């Protein structure tokens, strides 16, 4: 229940800040409240609100949990098979063991053979972010941008680059990265709906941050 208490408290404080500090018009209260409820729904869907908090040092004693959902999304947006797919599968296997450095090195080996493969550059970006504990280091920034430059129309690099930026707290940069992808995605597609929802949440957080300054 701790997760729910924290989430509900933060939602209530955010709504209060928008009304009192941001002087949000009364006619927009329902829209903002609906957006916050959508955020809580996303937390319930993707998070673990029922889990109790745990100290950081306890988690660091074991290898970082491999993000299977993230890997599956990448496989859905990038190459599954062929030479690049084999390198990515090997990297994923090392990632599952918590060997993030080795997972990135495997993809560097693959890029020596196929330096213009956007899927390997995308995988390297993800692996470098995982190795940096969620931070987007310059090396990951370069890898994502290299993948985008090789295949500008591919949704994968832009999607995962934006996701890494959002998770590291760079909300405006994530929004800027995702907006062109939303505009080019087919109407009714899952990725369009997902990113529209994510951008709406980002707008609320950015508005609250601006109101608090």
Automatic annotation (TrEMBL):
InterPro entries: TPR-like_helical_dom_sf. The chain crosses the membrane at residues 6-22, 29-46. Gene3D superfamilies: Tetratricopeptide repeat domain (1.25.40.10). Keywords: Membrane, Transmembrane, Transmembrane helix. This is Uncharacterized protein. It comes from Sphingobium quisquiliarum P25.
